[in-house]
Amino acid sequence: MRILKAIFTIAGCAFLFEFPLRAQSRDTNCDRSLGLVDMGHIASKGRLQEAGGPQTRHIIALGKKAIPLLIACLPDEPATKESVMDFWPTTAVGDIAFFYLCDLFTDSTWQHSTIDGVVTFQTVAAESPGSPAWNAWYTFVEKHGRRYVQIAWAKKWKEDGSAIVWDEKEQCFKITRSRH
To answer: pTM of the prediction?
Structure first.
């Protein structure tokens, strides 16, 4: 009887202590319909909107409604089943949301961001010149945190969300200012 009690006590403690950890690791603010955790490998050249995978088609179809959904995903750390980008040892859901936001606000030359006041790959690279993109990103995240990136994007969305439009020619979002 004592052995049985001990087994139930140990099992009960293990369950109680394990449950919050497991629940926490699965806790996400990312809309699962975006499918970011299930992303497969993507082309290493070009913007995501040109890659045409199922997640990309869904995000493009959502239009600017996708922007706050992607912003909500930025702090998410669950890893994808495989690394999505060439040379990246691993990718997390928040990384992919960041890739999308950066690419969706990059013009067709792949050189110019169409949004300012947010964290982009240019911001990240400026803090780690000469480093590979994955290393620069993870160094930036370690220094500032994923929430920092999310806060910058959320602030910009709040300030300028109504002025954001899809430019069909450039295949990217831009901020327009109405002329009075």
So the answer is: 0.82
